[in-house]
């Protein structure tokens, strides 16, 4: 029903406008008594065999919602009730910022993809932290054995110079430390001018080393992951492997959106009219898998990888897991496939021997 009736209706409206409408409706619907319980009955696959232990955390299932969908930590509980094992909020920045001018989100319907140049639009780390404090209190009261886990995706404000970027990342890290289960350092978005320069070996090593130094001040440090672009060369990926080893961060998320426009089905003139931004969704599937496989094989499986990019089905998720990912995330496919996506993937993963029977260390 979703793809036949609801999706064509939703696609009649501007992409960003309908995103806000849908998320507002989700929030309203789940405020009605009984809806959360019903949603969990419909969408949550409660199977111990799906649980996976990765970088010291136990995830109830390997399918997560990627950063970007819930920038301000407003739908964490609702997404958990739709079957996701973990939710990554953000990207958040120290101060609120409006992002880039609209329109900035475009559908590539023929390609099952999106182009976005949002530009880290968010309400700032403070409000997100406040909402997550409430969520964590609720989660602790429920005392679930395998609760929905929360990742905090952190970035810098657009007007913060790269030489001062560490200060922004530290502000977000400190503000979120008590309310997230792991951190993601985002230096790979193509929509903040100059941000990807921080992926170069020297500045990235300094940034991650400083965050790890801050992290080690705590009795129980949190896993820190690095989210990388799919557009890196093999040499740059080799640098990433070396940086992970040197800084001893927990792992890598592969990958962010791509600036490439290669092999799109959508008419080139239409794509050009949409303008700059990162491509997500199915066009990213092949390249993100290549990056995962390269990192895993080249490093000898030295660190966990969360695979994201073009996962529309259980087969796509298995492709990432077989390439070396420990967990997977979706976002664009959730828009195209609907609320039962996590359920469908998890149900099929239960049928895949060797991938879900034993949790990963």
From TrEMBL:
Under the heading PROSITE patterns, the entry gives:
DHODEHASE_1, DHODEHASE_2
Binding-site positions, FMN: 67-71, 91, 153, 186, 227, 255, 281, 310, 331-332
Q: Can you name a GO cellular component term?
A: cytoplasm
- Spell out the reaction equation it catalyses: (S)-dihydroorotate + a quinone = orotate + a quinol
What keywords sit in the KW lines?
Answer: Cell membrane, Flavoprotein, FMN, Membrane, Oxidoreductase, Pyrimidine biosynthesis
Q: Which residues form the signal peptide?
A: none
The answer to whether the entry has keyword Membrane is: yes
What is its pathway?
A: Pyrimidine metabolism; UMP biosynthesis via de novo pathway; orotate from (S)-dihydroorotate (quinone route): step 1/1
Cell membrane as UniProt keyword: yes
User: Where is the protein found, in the record's own terms?
Assistant: Cell membrane; Membrane
Enumerate the cofactors the protein uses: FMN
Q: How is the cofactor bound?
A: Binds 1 FMN per subunit.
Read off the InterPro entries from this record: Aldolase_TIM, DHO_dehydrogenase, Dihydroorotate_DH_2, Dihydroorotate_DH_cat, Dihydroorotate_DH_CS
What CDD domains does this protein map onto?
DHOD_2_like
Q: Which Enzyme Commission number(s) are on file for it? A: 1.3.5.2
Q: Quaternary structure per UniProt?
A: Monomer.
**What does the sequence similarity comment in the record state about its family?**
Belongs to the dihydroorotate dehydrogenase family. Type 2 subfamily.
Q: What PANTHER family is this protein classified in?
A: DIHYDROOROTATE DEHYDROGENASE (QUINONE), MITOCHONDRIAL (PTHR48109:SF4), DIHYDROOROTATE DEHYDROGENASE (QUINONE), MITOCHONDRIAL-RELATED (PTHR48109)
Question: What protein does this entry describe?
Answer: Dihydroorotate dehydrogenase (quinone)
What is the scientific name of the source organism?
Fibrisoma limi BUZ 3
